[in-house]
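Example record

The entry below shows one chain as it appears in the dataset: sequence first, then structure tokens.
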Amino acid sequence: MSRASYAAHFRTVMGQTPAEYLLSWRISLAQKRLLQGRPIALIADEVGYESPSALARAFRRKTGNSPRDWMKALKSADPQSA
């Protein structure tokens, strides 16, 4: 199967391209680790980014917020977390 055929089949089955899927998966892993209180530098390495800034750019592209702003929004939405 060619790369293009695989990508087309993947999109048909999954509803997103392989790159979009990988981005979603990595950001989901990063969000879980952020909630555990892990440092962004470690998270970046653990989820496959070369640097914390690369993770932050991808995080913002996917969620619309930086990792820090995403955490602040979660904490302000959940009064129990304070």
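Notes for this example: The chain has five helices and no strands. The CA atoms of residues 30 and 43 lie 6 Å apart.
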